[in-house]
Write a structure and sequence with these properties.
twelve-stranded antiparallel sheet, elongated, about 60% strand, 1 helix, lipopolysaccharide transport protein A fold, about 10% helix, mainly beta
């Protein structure tokens, strides 16, 4: 009793065809696509306005927007309550601006602050200083580790403060 060669070949062909129709081949190659720049600029001033007033201005020497995050080098920022805010780099993510490197804040009235890392919330005007900082006003000097500063109400709360404060004589 033997199997005829024709039957064996026919069954083999049917199995190969069945396997070929059940396996799905595609040319879709999943690759790690590199993010593309959405915007790139040099020496540009951004002006934010609402229907009534000027909200803020920001100047940068170089900037790029990738994946919805705007990164600006040598940022200079100005609002109604902040005369100038300088940083080596600022990253805009919605209403939040992450600031890094040589941050200085000059208020129209009050202390001047310097730090290395901070986050500014444009919507509520809160500046969170997340590194060691120095605040000066005339001869008054404050040093601390972290701080929270409400730029609109001018309320400053710092942690681990080392201060030299001069008061008026009465």
């Amino acid at each position: 009793m033997g199997i005829k060669l024709e039957v064996l070949l026919g069954v083999s062909i049917l199995l190969i065809l069945a396997a070929a129709y059940t396996v799905r081949l595609s040319d879709n190659v999943t690759s790690n696509a590199t993010p593309q720049k959405e915007l790139e600029f040099t020496d540009t001033t951004f002006t934010e306005v609402n229907t009534k007033t000027l909200v803020s201005t920001a100047f940068g020497t170089y900037g790029v927007r990738k994946d919805g995050v705007l990164t600006i080098r040598n940022l200079v920022y100005h609002t109604a309550s902040i005369e100038h805010l300088w940083a080596d780099e600022g990253r805009y993510m919605g209403d939040r601006v992450s600031l890094d490197g040589n941050i200085r804040i000059k208020q129209k009235e009050g202390f001047h602050y310097s730090a290395e890392h901070a986050t500014y919330n444009k919507q509520n005007g809160i500046l969170l200083i997340t590194s060691r900082f120095t605040a000066t006003m005339d001869k008054n000097t404050l040093h601390g580790n972290t701080a929270r500063y409400d730029t609109r109400r001018k309320v400053f709360v710092g942690k681990e403060i080392d201060a030299v404060v001069y008061t008026a004589e009465k």
